[in-house]
Amino acid sequence: MAKTYYAEGRQVAYLVRGLFILGGLGIYFSIPGLHWGFFFGILFGSIILGEIFGGMWTRKRRRDKKARKTARTSGIRQSSSNKSKSSAHSPSTKTPMKKLTDAQIIKADVRTLSGMDFERLMELYYIDQGYTVQRVGGSGDHEVDLILKGKEGYKIAVQCKRWKQDVGNDIVLRLKAGKQVHSCYDAWIVTTSNFTKAAKEAADKLNIKLINGLSLDDRLKRWKQT
């Protein structure tokens, strides 16, 4: 970049030199009787003035570049400083969510609950319906979150999905396998959303009960009112 500024300075020097030579010669030839020394003085003066102006141009361009670089550096440092201050005033790690009590889980909007709290809500619901409930969940659950055991003694595998998107047939197929792994007689999927067409068709063939968001809302509403 320094060479570019130098080249610009030389161009300015040549331009100024040419203008002064043309102007000086115009004056020299317009005034009769001037000594020839004025002619050479005009030439040398034009060269010196051109060099002066060219050097001034180069120095000015370099100063401007240095000022811009300093301004950018200061801006980056200021931004980094602000980020550091912001980090100092904010926690470095996420604040752990406060664990909800059973009463808070029951009163909360079901769609605001975490996946674990949703499972707990459904556990409380089915306990109140007269089932013995075993929490499964976690790694290797084979899509089974709860295992219900009714008065008749048979077991039901339940998958709880607090989802916004529709539940697909892949969940249905995996629950079918989970039902067999946990030796359950029946299998249900409970979700806050809905089910895809493929999921409904698969569940119908595999005799898996589907409970969508509308049905769940109605059941919970009646339960909370009792």
Structure description:
Strand 4, helix 6 (197-206) and strand 5 form a beta-alpha-beta unit. The protein has helices at 2-30, 36-89, 102-107, 115-128, 169-181, 197-206, 213-225; strands at 132-135, 146-149, 155-161, 186-191, 209-211. The model is unreliable at 87-92 (pLDDT under 50). The protein folds into two domains: 2-89; 102-225, 3-Layer(aba) Sandwich (Trna Endonuclease, Chain: A, domain 1), CATH 3.40.1350. With 226 residues, the chain is α/β, with parallel strands linked by helices. It has a five-stranded mixed beta sheet with strand order 1-2-3-4-5. It is built from seven helices and five strands; from the N terminus they run H-H-H-H-E-E-E-H-E-H-E-H.
CATH architecture of the largest domain: 3-Layer(aba) Sandwich
Rg calc: 42 Å
Task: Give the SSE order as H and E letters.
Answer: HHHHEEEHEHEH
> What's the pLDDT, averaged over the residues?
80
- Broad structural category: alpha/beta
Strand order of the largest sheet: 1-2-3-4-5
Helix content: 55-70%
Helical element count? 7
Number of strands: 5
Topology:
Layout: H1 2-30, H2 36-89, H3 102-107, H4 115-128, E1 132-135, E2 146-149, E3 155-161, H5 169-181, E4 186-191, H6 197-206, E5 209-211, H7 213-225
Parallel strand pairs: 3-4, 4-5
Antiparallel strand pairs: 1-2, 2-3
